[in-house]
Amino acid sequence: MTLQINSDAPDFEAETTEGKIKFHEWLGNSWGVLFSHPRDFTPVCTTELGNLAKLKVEFDKRGVKIIGLSVDPVENHAKWSKDIEETQGFAPNYPMIGDGDFNVSKLYGMLPAAVSGDPTKRTPADNATVRNVFIIGPDKKIKLVLVYPMTTGRNFDEVLRVIDSLQLTAKHKVATPVNWKQGEDVIIAGSVSDEDAKKQYPGGWKAPRPYLRIVPQPK
Fold first, then answer.
1. What are the start and end residues of each CATH 3.40.30.10 domain in the chain?
2. In this prediction, what percent of the chain has a pLDDT beyond 90?
3. CA pair distance 14, 162, nearest whole angstrom
4. Does 196 qualify as catalytic in the annotation?
5. Tens digit of each residue's pLDDT (9 = 90 or more) over 56-89
6. What is the pLDDT at residue 112?
7. Burial of 58 (C-beta count, 10 Å sphere; 0-12/13-18/19+)
8. What angle do CA 134, 136, 137 make, to 5 degrees?
9. CATH architecture of the region 13-153
10. Catalytic pick from 8, 11, 60, 139?
């Protein structure tokens, strides 16, 4: 199964480093980031988990819950956390799913349905497809999917930037242009007619082309 933008985020029950959860219940009315890694004790992901722990305060400000996933058992996550803290300066401060039966990885289209066996016998290369980022809205819909190769570290500042855009555009009928950052000008959505736009933006807008209507970011 391939999950696309606006697909329902599959619900599941799983053991995590913070106890057993039902995913949709755990999310509640929050935004969420589910990010996965191929195996515990892998070098690139060690740097990523530490960085995400450092940035968690920024996700908290935005009302976004973070949860990690690996096919390794939960007890391995706890051991790995010590390495992450010692090498990166921050230990994971968010739950990490132990997906030993591959259930979540399969639900989210990261491993084939036929995969089975002992997860600890699999190599990182076997799980190379388990290196994704899913942003999930309060409506439990997938808002973004990013898939990374094993040799490229993820940029969680970019994930925060996307969340800022998603939250803004969910509230206002605007879109964000290339390289947009919080506080910069935005574009009136194409679904908004000029007549309706005049009601929302009585001061007008810049329009280098009729279809490119630029306004300050709504408050």
1. 13-153
2. 88
3. 27
4. no
5. 999 999 999 999 999 999 999 999 999 999 999 9
6. 82
7. middle
8. 160
9. 3-Layer(aba) Sandwich (3.40)
10. 139
**Domain 172-215 listed as CATH 3.20.20.450:** no
Annotated active-site residue 83? The verdict is: no
Do 47 and 15 form a contact (C-beta atoms < 8 A)? no
Beta carbons of 66 and 93 less than 8 angstroms apart: no
For residues 141 and 168, give the distance between their C-alpha atoms in angstroms, rounded to a whole number. Answer: 16
Q: What is the dihedral of CA 101, 23, 67, 29, to 10 degrees?
A: 170
Helices (H), 112-186: 156-171
- The answer to whether 108 and 101 are in contact (CB under 8 A) is no
Give the total residue count for the chain.
219
- Looking at the chain, the domain(s) classified CATH 3.30.1020.10 span 172-215
pTM: 0.93
Query: % helix / strand / coil in the chain, to the nearest 5?
Result: 35, 25, 45
Q: Which member of 45, 72, 99, 164 is catalytic?
A: 45
How do residues 142-189 score in pLDDT, each as one tens digit?
Answer: 999 999 999 999 999 999 999 999 999 999 999 999 999 999 999 999
